[in-house]
Amino acid sequence: MRILKWPPLQALTLLGLGWVSHSHGMTDETVSHLRQDTRDLYYHGYTNYMKHAFPEDELRPISCKPQTRNREDPADIGLNDVLGNYSVTLVDSLSTLAILASGEESVDGHSPLADFQAGVIALVNLYGDGGSVHPCGSKACGFDLDSKVQVFETNIRGVGGLLSAHLFAVGELPIRGYAPEVHEQRNGVVGIDWQGFVYNGQLLRLAHDLASRLLPAFDTATGIPYPRVNLRHGIPFYRDSEDGVCRLDGTSTDSREITENCAAGAGSLVLEFTTLSRLTGDMRFERLAKHAFWAVFQRRSAIGLIGNGIDSETGQWTLPPLAGIGAGVDSFFEYALKSSIMFSGLSEDEESPLSDTSDAFLQAWELAHSAVKRHVHRITATEKYPYYGQADLVTGAPRYTWIDNLSAYYPGLLTLAGELDEAIESHLLFAALWTRYGALPERWHTNNAYIDHHFKHWAGRPEFIESTYYLYQATRDDFYLHVGEMTLRDIRRRCWTRCGWADLGDVTTGEQRDRMESFFLGETAKYLYLLFDENHPLNHLDASVVFTTEGHPLIIPKHHRSAGTQSKPSKTTQSAAEGPTLPAPTCPIHQRSAPFTGSSIVNRPDFFHAAAMAQLHLVPVEASRSSHLQPASEHSAAITIEDIRSPTNYTYYPWTLPQSLVPSYGTSAPTRTQILSTLTFPNLNTGDLNAAKGVMNLGSLQKIVDGIVISSLSNLRLSMVQEPRSLILPNANGLTIELDMGQQYRVSGVANWALGKDEKVVLSAEAQDGVAPADPNFKRVKDLEMLDLVVDFVQPAISKSAAADNEPTDSRTNVPIGNHTSGGRSALDSTLNGELSSELPTLPPPPTLMRTLIPAILPTGPGAAPLPLTLDTADPLTLQVGRLPHTSIYFLESTLCDHRLPFGIVRSHQILVIKRGGCSFNTKLANIPAFAASPEALQLVIVLSTPESKAPNEGLNGGHLGSGLIRPLLDEIQRTPAGVERRVRIAMVMVDGNDDHVAALRSAARVVATMDDHGSIIEDAREALGTGLGVKRRYWFESMGVPIGNMIAL
């Protein structure tokens, strides 16, 4: 390829003459050459497969022999999982042939449409027509083959390939110039005439035959299919098989097979199985696939992460419990979003639950991606560039820093979801890595650019090229055409063999391996061709077409859809409809560069950050490549100067990037820097010899669900990272907004153990004894704005029959009063009880105390008073339920604005509860008479901020620190009803007056009273049952004046 550098006037002249160019430099002539090169790439692999390997599964391109199953070693799952002895490369390649058939007139002697039809005929001759007329072919009757295969691989390559080819054959997917018509042929068969061969759905019937042979794998209690199945015998190698012989101890007569599946393997069946069900009317496939998807999704961790390995029989995640976006989980995310696309406007299966709708799958994607963005996406300033690592499934803590080749699909999926900026960002790192290595290693460590010895290979995977294709469709930025050009040139230069295309055993040396996987022709070549064919019918089809994870386009035909049918709303959608109406989600429009100004992708301020992480600066400007110039021949591919020399240099990427796309005045943002801090505590146990040597105390750390409890700081090291402090809150329109709250530290590690972003570090009371009050590096600070009211209240008593019908669902602690023992009754007691039970009245059960915490906010202003020492010292959570210090609570159903409170109330009650509204807070306190301080007198006024008392839009932005409360203002000093300054000022707090809080405080009150318009009070006195109230102060920890956000004082 020649890179032309034109003056602007010359370029405009050429454009005016009708010679069209892309806006950023790649000409249509160049794109046409790349398209033809991709077609040549495909046919070099396909014709050699048909010549040297067909009808076997794959081609060995170096030895020019077929690649078959390893029957000598059944444990060789790398081959046997995929190669089912059903000509998988041909099945996987048919949809690519159909796509090539929409290209230009043949200039190379190949006719993709004729080759497509010939491939279909060849399969029918081998395996029959899938029906009763010609059920058997020369090789097998359908797919009645003694092959134990992986359910996932057989579905995506075999079932998906057959279905996609069928949809092309009948015209449901477009082939330019091909308009099939169904007629009754001379032999009476109704179908489509292909020059003597009548196509009447043979591929669809074969797909049904193959998928039916996968169904025994779904015979599990969890709905998660077994990972493997024998196409002839089913699953006799699993204990819970439908026909297996099981011993009394639960073991099987056959050797046990591993029952570990993965999220991707179990959850990536929906597209193919749903299409098959809708085309055949056999709904078993759709229902089983959807059930398997939700069985995996419903087992996500509490923080929303999807794991990798999962056991089919138990439904438990396997060890180690990791979460990421790559191997083991990748296509689960893909099928969540793409199922939503496929099901949009689709008439629903009447027996399917609400969770099977398009909206439900879309929400599953959004929830899953949200968890990935929170816990898996590494975007902290400690990284040179953002990437998706490996996290702990339960906590979200970072575990590994490597990224894998399979993760390269994610930018394309993000593009489909409308997350365009994130897609561009993540794709840049893969583009930089390909530039450095000439392919993508299977696994690459981000912290030191290390490639493990076992993961240096590139198996011809398509994921990176797939994402490049999607991003070009969304942006039309020629940067992605040059990325595709780079991959094509590198594949031609490094993978060519006389009999096909070999994958690379080592991307650093170029060592080849003697295998060409079926997906190289089925996906890699396909996405490259679609990238370079902007006018392909599939790129302009306005329909719910999705590409499966194997690159097979699928669509539910129109006669299976109802134009007026709306998907049944999911439960979450129904509840959301009751809230504010939100704007419809839309995909962002990419900001394109002005003509002749370069690429907006290259102009990104973080463009060179990805290059820095990939260490492109270590590649010489005049990089020497492993190939030399040579003409095309039967012994070599054509290697030109453009295949080995970069027009810019290798710090730019892709290495094919021309100078015309480099912005003249582009700038790079500074790399991220982050404030890290380490707190190392000395030995605090002077009498312990091990502690004196710097050894932590045994039992000083305890793992809990939400983090770690520290019981001793002695010899402990805490790693902290400074991050922006923000709150995610709803605004007045019901949309979430992020409020900047400054900076805070987050403890990211305790004693070299990494913590997740949402994990807490809890310091016990014993550990806090080691905190020096005056140490600025680590200081405990009392919260002067928020506290918690600890309330013991009586649970409403219900009858035994009602209790049986209504199991308690409240998570608060139930503590019964008194000891209740149960013992055996004598026969006489039983008899008497039976005779008299109908006559004796049913006694209510004894009252039960419950404890709850109610957040409260302290007032501000000249009239604010500190809490009394009786409330501000002891921690009430250390006391048993029913032993709180303040038991005399007066609940007044009044705002206390118009009348004074009787003196006897403040003298004999410690807590007064009143309602907000009607007057200022100062006026309320002014209606409380003066009194002498005593333990029995008034200690605290609690103001209930009920919904009717709040101002419009109050609390929609979260209130104070997300509490939903605003701080009360006492703008004047406190005065008595006589107007003089109050000597004993009254402490006050305000709480959210929701139904739960009001019910708890009312139940805890010794007196509940109302005040009429004349100031008269009607009281309802309660029996003392152990109710009471205490105040728990809040504390936070800070280092050098910066709060530590995830540390809690116990």
Question: Could you walk me through the main structural features you see in this protein, from its secondary elements to its overall organization?
Answer:
Its cofactor is Ca(2+). The active site is at 153 (proton donor), 330 (proton donor), 442 (proton donor), 463. Helix content is 28%, strand content 18%. The chain is of the alpha+beta class and 1050 residues long. Among the domains are: 26-202, no CATH class; 219-400, Glycosyltransferase (Alpha/alpha barrel); 601-661, no CATH class; 676-771, no CATH class; 848-951 and 958-1036, no CATH class. Strands 30, 31, 32, 33, 34, 35, 36, 37, 38, 39 and 40 form an eleven-stranded mixed sheet that branches. Strands 23-26-27-28 form a four-stranded antiparallel sheet, with no helix packed on it. Helix 14 (420-437) runs parallel beside helix 19 (607-614).
Helices and strands, with pairings:
Layout: H1 8-16, H2 28-52, E1 58-60, E2 65-67, H3 77-80, H4 88-100, H5 112-127, E3 148-150, H6 151-169, E4 183-184, E5 190-194, E6 197-199, H7 202-212, E7 228-230, E8 260-262, H8 263-267, H9 270-280, H10 284-297, E9 309-311, E10 322-323, H11 330-343, H12 358-376, E11 377-378, E12 387-388, E13 390-392, E14 398-400, E15 402-404, H13 410-416, H14 420-437, E16 443-445, H15 463-475, H16 478-495, E17 496-497, E18 500-501, E19 503-506, E20 511-513, H17 518-532, E21 546-547, E22 553-554, H18 571-577, H19 607-614, E23 676-680, H20 689-692, E24 701-704, E25 707-710, E26 717-730, E27 736-750, E28 753-754, E29 760-763, H21 765-768, E30 779-795, H22 800-805, E31 813-816, H23 827-836, E32 848-857, H24 869-872, E33 889-893, H25 903-908, E34 911-915, H26 921-926, E35 940-945, E36 987-992, H27 995-1004, E37 1007-1011, E38 1017-1021, E39 1028-1039, E40 1042-1044, E41 1047-1049
Parallel strand pairs: 25-29, 29-41, 33-34, 33-37, 34-35, 35-36
Antiparallel strand pairs: 1-2, 3-7, 4-5, 5-6, 8-9, 10-13, 11-12, 13-14, 15-16, 17-18, 19-20, 21-22, 23-26, 24-25, 26-27, 27-28, 30-32, 30-39, 31-32, 32-36, 37-38, 39-40
Helix pairs in contact: 2-4, 2-16, 2-17, 4-5, 4-6, 4-17, 6-7, 6-9, 7-9, 9-10, 11-12, 13-14, 13-15, 14-15, 14-19, 15-16, 15-17
